[in-house]
Design a protein that fits this description.
206 residues
Length: 206
């Protein structure tokens, strides 16, 4: 945008700001959209719109009209990403048992964060080798992969948010053992009058 489209610093900041507003709008409207259309169809539609929102960037040329088009497309793209991402994270947390929540989140964070530097290096290498626009076109084609994965999964027909997994029943040994009764603290009794205690330790006197 800065080099190929000669976009100024102010316009570039406004475009990125529109994208951030789109992400926030998508996250905020995700619960109502999922309740109205179903989580599966909503995510499927969001993932289908995401590659199409790349087209203005691929076709753009220098000029104010294209700057507005890129800003609107980025707003729509990140709104879809925010809506789909919020919904899939909610589903993932709901279907994961309580004892596995931390591991699930750690694996997800490791996969997504670990892929970013690899993708950045790959994008930079391809951009230098084949050019910026062909690299953007390749990235747009990669955005179809999540859509295909979701379409081939049972989640595409999910109309309601799933319920939490049932807790495992207690074992027979746990049922057989009676619950421990609370122990009352021992209260020392006062000594009776005339009760004299002698020190029986070595070298001790009465």
């Amino acid at each position: 945008m800065l080099r190929s489209l000669a976009m100024g610093a102010t316009a570039f900041g406004v475009v990125l700001g529109l994208g951030a507003l789109g992400a926030a709008a998508g996250a905020l409207t995700a619960p109502s959209l999922a309740a109205r259309y179903g989580p599966g169809p909503m995510m499927l539609a969001a993932l289908a719109i995401t590659p199409l929102a790349q087209l203005p960037l691929l076709l753009a040329s220098p000029g104010l009209i294209w700057q507005v088009a890129i800003g609107a497309a980025l707003f729509l793209q990140l709104a879809c990403a925010g809506a789909a991402g919020t919904t899939q994270r909610t589903i993932r947390q709901v279907v994961t048992a309580d004892g596995m929540q931390a591991r699930m989140q750690a694996v997800s964070t490791w996969l997504t964060s670990g892929a970013r530097p690899v993708a950045a290096l790959l994008a930079g290498g391809l951009g230098t080798w084949i050019g910026v626009r062909p690299t953007l076109a390749a990235g747009t084609c990669l955005l179809v992969a999540p859509l295909v994965v979701l379409y081939r999964s049972p989640l595409r027909s999910l109309r309601e948010m799933p319920g939490s997994p049932a807790a495992p029943p207690p074992s027979g040994a746990a049922l057989a053992q009676p619950a421990p009764s609370p122990r009352e603290p021992a209260v020392p009794q006062p000594a009776a009058p005339g009760d004299v205690r002698h020190d029986r330790s070595p070298g001790g006197g009465p």
